[in-house]
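Section 3.1: Structural characterization of target chains.
Under the original work plan, the team committed to producing a structural model for every single-chain target entering the pipeline before any wet-lab resources were allocated. The record below documents one such target. The sequence was received from the expression subgroup and is listed exactly as submitted; it comprises 112 residues.
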Amino acid sequence: MIQTEKRDVSHDQTVVEILRNDPEFANEYLSAALEDADLPGGQAAFLAALRHVVDAQGIAAVASRAGMPRESLYRALGPQGNPTIKTVFAVMRSTGLRLNVSTKAAHVDCTS
C-alpha cells in the first residue's frame, strides 16, 4: 500500500486558492458576505472575505494599487481591523470590484 502525505490546508488557504483560480468567484463571494454584513458577526465576516480576495491577488500588489503601505492593509483587514470606508473603497477599487446596494426583502410578519 502506498501512503501519501496528508496536506494540512486551512479553510482560509482553500478559499484563497479558489479565488486565485477563479477571479470571477470573488464577486459572488464578496456579494454574499456583504448581504449578511448587518447580522451579528457579519462585518468581521465581510472583512475576512475581503482579506481572502486581497490574499488571492497578492497583498503587496493590492496595497500598491490602493496607494497604501502593505502593513496598513494587513492591519485594516486583520481580525482587529476597523478600516475606514475610504480604505474599503480603495481596496475594492484595487481588486477590480465595487460594492453594490440593493433593497432588503420585505419583512413578513407571520404572527397575525
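Residues 11-95 form one domain.
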